[in-house]
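Section 3.1: Structural characterization of target chains.
Under the original work plan, the team committed to producing a structural model for every single-chain target entering the pipeline before any wet-lab resources were allocated. The record below documents one such target. The sequence was received from the expression subgroup and is listed exactly as submitted; it comprises 482 residues.
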Amino acid sequence: MRRSEARSALRLAYVSAGCLLVALASSCAPEGGVAREAERVSAASDSPQVQAPRASAELDQSRTTAIVLAASRVAPAVVSINVLRTQTLQPRTPWESFFLPPGAQRRAASFGSGVIVQDGIIVTNNHVIEGADQIRVTLSSGTDVAAELVGADPLADIAVLRVQERNLPVAPVGSVDDLMIGEWAIAIGNPLGNYIGDTRPTVTAGVVSAVDRNIAPSGSEEGFYLGMIQTDASINPGNSGGPLVNADGEVIGINASIISRSGGSEGLGFAIPIDRALRIVDDLLRFGEVRRAWIGIEVEPVEADAWGRTRGVRISRVAPDSPADRAALDPGDRLLAADRRPLTGPLDFEGVMLDLRAGDELELAVEGQSRAIQLEALAFPSVTAERVVVLQDIEVITVTPQVRAERGLTSEAGALILGISDELVGSTGLRPGDVIVGINRTPIHSADELAQVFDGLAGNGRLALTFERNGGYGVRPLYYRR
């Protein structure tokens, strides 16, 4: 083949390849149109800017997943919570104790997350704000605002904050009643706190791994978490108090804790059910305290089988004239389920009681009975009891069989201290929960008797006050002046 023929063959091959590349965009003629297509390819290659094809509408739509939509719906209502605390320094070595003055203190900063559930009302964890001297909230817009503590429930690890700003984004809320194992779960919060300048919350996704989980404390942790949502969505320090969200963009839980050997997320995260959190919010806003209910029984674990498994709980104590007593429940009865939730141990039962309010109907399945027992929960006897104020700063109630059963008291009579001023705590050593059972040699059977003794005092003197605390008894001198 001559050199000119070879060059012509190469040009033809090049043009054919160019024709193949553009075949999808245009009809490439194999004969007369070859030259024209070659010119188009050559012109495109000589152009200084080659525009890439724009993403199609279908691609944009596929990127906008349920997670994207859910996060965009809730994220504007997620806030970062910054806390300042005063800590008393403890020497860790003899060398530090030599230089560290007694009672030395320092200011420490920490952070967490929260979610706006009503205009100006924020829900977070109690452990995020506990012991705080100052609380500052950073909104998703980047605005810093001061927050006041409305109230907290250490038992459920929920706290409620209020800010003065209005017309804030409010997160939609759902329920845990219809949660499905395996459905999407999205954790939103601010795990990096102030370490980065971007105040927008971060998003992690996983699934609902389990529901009604009971978590026992370990190491330096305090308290139990009952009836929790378990998720493998990454929850890290700083996420505490932020929302757990479903695929519909509804808050289903408040992120609270993780189980981790490394300190980071290992796919074992837990959230407080939003239904419980909202009940606590309602109680704290309306009453300034959490008002749980009572049915008048105490339970204990049953014997485990050969594999270490238990089924049900045994009633160990029934309070006289309580809802359980009226329903003919007796010590020794085995409860298999409460509100159709199977009971495998006392923590399951306590989880049901944690969400109970006065007036709620409770259904109990009892072993050996073909029909479930229905009973109505009541307010705790100590809440409804008549209060008597003595020494202007001590609030007491009479110990009744119901109050005794509620508080697990040893004394059958006396005056139970519900409230006492900080000043009297320091001067008398008495505390809420103490039961005054005697003054000098006079037994005290009721709150009214205690008031009568104090009203009859004259002049100045000294009393010997006998009281019960934590099942034991003590005597404390009390000086008075009239």
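The chain has four domains: 3-42, 66-287, 293-379, 382-481.
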